[in-house]
């Protein structure tokens, strides 16, 4: 059978998307399977690795059925995976915890002082590029586990990331790639390898971290046992894959220098590809190794974008049923309201503040509500609030690098025409939407798969795959108005961060 198809998995915060591509990188079909996120305690955010695996298996079956593709046509599979996850495996490869902390879990705040006791934070950041709050990174999560779950910790043979766990389930091989390793908190970006002194600072054995292989290398093949569960043929090659930031950067526009994109998913980030990491101690962009040695994807972020918009849908539009069709209603509502949402502002930090924001304790809020405010005002304000929060981080990135040309929007939220217009006017730069939109991470993973089995030689083909669907020039008058609102938004966010810090230390105890 002619093996002329590629299967890519985008393992995200909200669920798993499985996509089928032909050898030229054209998308043939896709399916999405949602899974749950759990919040067991303050600052704790967890998911179940077996929910990822069962999602992969179910999505594969549905994808093959939907596309009519025979599993024997699959030349290779590859994954994009959400970052900073800590999945502990024992010496037999068994999962040691049903639920594991994911990227936005920040329970390890008490371990920070110990980690940086004999290790200057500046040295750590400038070596790793780990600009998110330190407690998000895997090494700190392991320090927390050692203290609070010692029985689990002492059984750890290897710690792996999200897509690495799925690769292990596929192939029985435990490993990672440079991009995912660069989010462990112990990776030297310039040396492209682990940094021994960071293990010593944490008191964690280097050996529990997986070996690092290139993102576009075949690490193994689907086993007989995995084939029975997932539906891929035994012997199907599996590429090492990459972290979601890197896959999306690759799928956005390949390895083009100083070209940026905005990812509009559950969380959101603005990233640029370059030949050197963009590092700044005052604003702390976060950096991941790219798919090719010598390239980096540097980014700034907010923790809550699409998930804040979903919160608005689920809480303010319950009468519409809460499905995806409700987003079309929200688009129409937003179009009916003028820029500035009739004086209502929204801060989208429902998942806390990122390193580029004023405080990790920052909480979401509406401001400017009056008795005359409408639901339509709040819907548009939520769209504008996400764009304003990202514009503030964009200013940080633009102070470090001269971005070339336009801003490509990727992710599910990029489908909204009214939101694209809002972004163009708030960013004050041309905004581009292509046929790839929310398939960028999947295309990046498919490109890794294609290179790993020799179907592609490099990543130039990705630029050819992008076809422009919408190109928006900012409106000068609207932008001038938004610039004034952005000043107010910035001052408000600073004040809100201070109040959120005070609130975080205030608890009510029942007598």
Automatic annotation (TrEMBL):
Coiled coil (residue ranges): none
UniProt entry keywords in alphabetical sequence: Kinase, Transferase
Domain Carbohydrate kinase FGGY N-terminal per the UniProt entry, residue ranges: 7-251
CDD domains with a match to the protein in the record: ASKHA_NBD_FGGY_CvXK-like
SUPFAM superfamilies in UniProt: Actin-like ATPase domain (SSF53067)
GO molecular function: kinase activity
Span of domain Carbohydrate kinase FGGY C-terminal: 260-450
A Pfam family of this chain: FGGY_N
Family: Belongs to the FGGY kinase family.
Name assigned to this protein: Pentose kinase
């Amino acid at each position: 059978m002619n093996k002329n198809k590629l299967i890519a998995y985008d393992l995200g915060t909200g669920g798993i998307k499985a996509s089928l591509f032909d050898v030229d990188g054209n998308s043939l079909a896709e399916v999405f399977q949602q899974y749950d996120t759990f919040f067991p305690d303050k600052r704790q955010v967890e998911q179940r690795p077996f929910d990822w695996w069962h999602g992969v298996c179910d999505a594969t079956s549905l994808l093959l059925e939907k596309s009519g593709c025979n599993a024997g046509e699959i030349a290779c599979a590859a994954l994009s995976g959400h970052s900073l996850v800590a999945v502990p495996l024992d010496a037999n490869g068994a999962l040691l915890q049903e639920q594991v902390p994911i990227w936005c879990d920040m329970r390890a705040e008490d371990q920070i002082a110990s980690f940086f006791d004999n290790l200057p934070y500046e040295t750590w950041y400038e070596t790793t590029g780990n600009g998110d709050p330190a407690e998000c990174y895997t090494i700190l999560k392991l320090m927390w586990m050692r203290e609070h779950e010692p029985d689990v910790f002492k059984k750890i043979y290897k710690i792996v990331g999200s897509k690495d766990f799925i690769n292990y389930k596929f192939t029985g091989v435990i490993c990672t790639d440079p991009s995912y390793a660069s989010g462990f908190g112990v990776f030297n970006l310039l040396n492209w390898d682990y940094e021994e002194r960071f293990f010593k600072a944490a008191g964690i054995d280097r050996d529990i971290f997986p070996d690092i292989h290139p993102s576009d290398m075949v690490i193994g093949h689907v086993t007989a046992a995995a084939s029975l569960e997932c539906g891929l043929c035994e012997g199907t090659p599996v590429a090492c894959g990459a972290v979601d930031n890197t896959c999306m950067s690759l799928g956005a526009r390949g390895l083009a220098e100083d070209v940026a994109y905005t990812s509009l998913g559950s969380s959101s980030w603005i990233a640029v590809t370059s030949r050197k990491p963009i590092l700044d101690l005052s604003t702390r962009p976060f950096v991941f190794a790219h798919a090719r040695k010598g390239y980096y994807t540097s980014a700034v972020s907010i923790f809550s974008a699409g998930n804040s918009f979903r919160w608005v849908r689920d809480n303010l539009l319950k009468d519409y049923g809460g499905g995806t069709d409700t987003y079309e209603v929200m688009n129409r509502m937003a179009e009916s309201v003028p820029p500035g949402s009739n004086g209502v502002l929204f801060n989208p930090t429902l998942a806390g503040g990122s390193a580029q924001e004023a405080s990790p304790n920052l909480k979401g809020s509406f401001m400017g509500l009056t008795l005359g405010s409408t639901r339509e005002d709040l819907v548009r304000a939520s769209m504008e609030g996400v764009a304003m929060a990202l514009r503030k981080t964009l200013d940080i990135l633009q102070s470090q690098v001269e971005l070339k040309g336009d801003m490509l929007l990727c992710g599910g939220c990029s489908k909204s025409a009214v939101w694209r217009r809002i972004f163009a006017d708030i960013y004050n730069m041309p905004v581009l939407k292509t046929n790839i939109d929310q398939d960028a991470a999947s295309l990046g993973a498919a490109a890794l798969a294609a290179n790993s089995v020799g179907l592609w030689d490099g990543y130039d083909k990705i630029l050819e795959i992008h076809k422009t669907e919408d190109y928006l020039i900012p409106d000068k008058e609207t932008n001038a108005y938004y610039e004034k609102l952005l000043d107010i938004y910035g001052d408000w966010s600073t004040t809100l961060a201070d109040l959120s810090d005070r609130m975080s230390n205030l608890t009510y105890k029942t007598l």
